[in-house]
Design a protein that fits this description.
The chain has 350 residues and is α/β, with parallel strands linked by helices. It is 31% helix and 29% strand. The chain contains 11 helices and 16 strands. The protein has a 7-stranded mixed sheet with strand order 3-2-1-4-6-5-7, sandwiched between helices. Strands 10, 11, 13, 15 and 16 form a 5-stranded antiparallel sheet that branches. It has a 4-stranded mixed sheet with strand order 8-12-14-9, with helices on both faces.
């Protein structure tokens, strides 16, 4: 019988500055797609991914990575699920993931649990654990005698684990003290160390991350020129420049819009800068420029403009999309719509 894979990717990545699923490894691949590759190369067929913090951004990124994911998965199926209780700790993701694995049509006899932030685990380690696969199996990898990841859990244990685990411990809570636990030495087959900070990511040593230059990140009352933002980010080393223009349209849900007025909280400039710095730190792109306009805007005016330059188009598209989505969701700016019939409404106002 087959083994499924389970990727736990619901954490907020507070020390990293963004959800870890979105972080790019020095080689350019995201931690999430890298985790899928490890599991597939290790022999897992269907894979379940559990999301939580930043889920809308991760799902948007997965749409962008569709071709890459399809190539990784081959004949296996990928199932991406939500864990609304992710703040309760890893145990909530383990419960959600095991429940979904239980429902897979392929009926795997075991599941390999992989953390999204352990990129140096080897597919060979997963394959070595899978040799011990059985419905009754409880198998853990060890490194110099110390238990680490990955771990393989047989079908008979999924429900008991889901019922027992609490907090941020995960499945280890169930494994402690058991005499039926199989330890498989994986010395020389990578490392189970998790990556929590940008410095730890750089320390992987494959290559230095590209240093991203932030040319503009601000709220402004002036007209926004996306062409000008594009010129700012252009770089001889970049093979792609992606831009976005958020334009005031003349309708909203069937009502004719006459004009808009954007009002911003005093912290708006700081928020734009913080969001841009967080994305720049992990994006691997060459340059970013972004502006959000406030004040009175007419139909056709640009409310949000972004430009991203990167060595490759995929990095540029993904970073621009993530930047737009985060600014739209996090920026404390409120929209006052004035309609042709004389009525008005506030959008996103506190």
């Amino acid at each position: 019988m087959s083994s499924a894979g389970l990727v736990l990717a619901a954490g907020a990545g507070t020390r990293m500055g963004m959800p870890k699923a979105l972080v790019r490894l020095p080689g350019g691949k995201s931690l999430l797609t890298h985790s899928l590759q490890i599991l597939r190369d290790g022999g897992c067929e269907d894979i379940v991914v559990v999301l939580g913090a930043g889920e809308p951004f991760v799902r948007k990124a997965l749409e962008t990575w569709a071709e890459e994911v399809e190539a990784i998965m081959g004949e296996g199926e990928l199932f991406v699920i939500s864990n609304p209780d992710y703040e309760q700790g890893m145990s909530s993701s383990v419960r959600a993931g095991l429940q979904r694995v239980q429902e897979l049509r392929s009926k795997p006899e075991s599941v390999v649990i992989q953390l999204v932030d352990t990129p140096e685990i080897s597919p060979d380690a997963i394959e070595r654990l899978r040799k011990e696969s059985a419905a009754s199996a409880l198998v853990v990898a060890t490194y110099e005698g110390v238990i680490g990841h990955p771990m393989l859990i047989g079908r008979e244990h999924w429900l008991p684990i889901a019922e027992m685990v609490t907090g941020d411990v995960g499945a280890r809570q169930y494994l402690n003290g058991r005499d039926d636990l199989t330890r498989v030495a994986c010395d020389g087959l990578g490392s189970p160390v998790d990556i929590d900070t940008p410095d730890e990511l750089r320390a992987l040593g494959q290559r230095d991350l590209v240093e991203t230059e932030i040319h503009k990140a601000e709220v402004t009352r002036e007209d926004i020129s996306v062409s000008f933002l594009e010129l700012l980010v252009r770089d001889r080393r970049a093979g792609a420049v992606v831009t976005f223009s958020g334009i005031v349209r003349d309708h909203d849900y069937g009502r004719q819009v006459k004009k808009l007025n954007y009002m911003a909280h005093p912290t708006a400039d700081e928020v734009v800068r913080t969001v841009t710095e967080e994305i720049a730190a992990m994006s691997g792109v060459r340059g970013i420029a972004v502006q959000h306009r406030v004040g009175e805007l007419e139909i056709g005016d640009i409310a949000l403009g972004c430009a991203v330059a990167a060595d490759h188009r995929q990095e540029a598209f993904e970073t621009c999309s993530l930047l737009v989505e985060r600014i739209k969701s996090e920026l404390p700016v409120w929209k006052h719509q004035i309609f042709e019939d004389g009525t008005d409404e506030w959008v996103n106002a506190p």
